[in-house]
Write a structure and sequence with these properties.
Largest sheet: 4 strands, mixed
Strand order of the largest sheet: 1-2-3-4
Radius of gyration: 15 Å
Oligomer: single chain
Number of strands: 4
Shape: globular
Number of domains: 2
Helix content: 55-70%
Low-confidence stretches: none
Mean pLDDT: 94
Length: 142
């Protein structure tokens, strides 16, 4: 992937990241930031390691920890919504680094808003895109 002609962005949860990286879940849990950063710089990709305190590791070795999120996002389908948001932001012209952070942040904020509205167990992935779009609208109209 180091020779890719475009930026490569991966959005794994911990089990997927374990399979991609060859690291054990125990090693990933012990150092989420270090694991993601080492893999990102070694392979030449950006990694958005989903989970509590999602980590965005860049291929240059830098990282950001996303300040938003909710356990409500730990269900099938929410990662697909995140990927769709990311692709939409990239297609809209955001630079890859900005798009990854914006998608992760809006996804997390949307999950938080829905968990307050319906509880952490009561949200559907199909509701997440709309909630995240509402958050984006609030930010853009401030």
């Amino acid at each position: 992937m180091k020779n890719a002609k475009r930026e490569v962005i991966l959005t794994p949860h911990e089990m997927e990241f374990s399979r991609l990286s060859g690291l054990s879940l125990e090693n990933i849990h012990a150092d989420r930031v270090g694991s993601a950063c080492a893999f990102a710089s070694e392979v030449g990709v950006t990694v958005l390691l989903k989970g509590a305190d999602s980590v965005i590791a860049r291929r240059d070795g830098g990282f950001t920890v996303c300040p938003s999120g909710s356990p409500a996002l730990a269900k099938g389908g929410t990662g697909d919504v995140l990927a769709g948001m990311l692709v939409g932001l990239l297609a809209g012209g955001l630079a890859p680094e900005a798009a990854v952070f914006a998608a992760a942040y809006l996804h997390g904020e949307g999950g938080e808003a829905l968990s307050h509205r319906y509880s952490e167990r009561g949200i559907l992935p199909s509701e997440l895109a709309g909630a995240s779009a509402e958050i984006l609208c609030e930010i853009l109209t401030k």
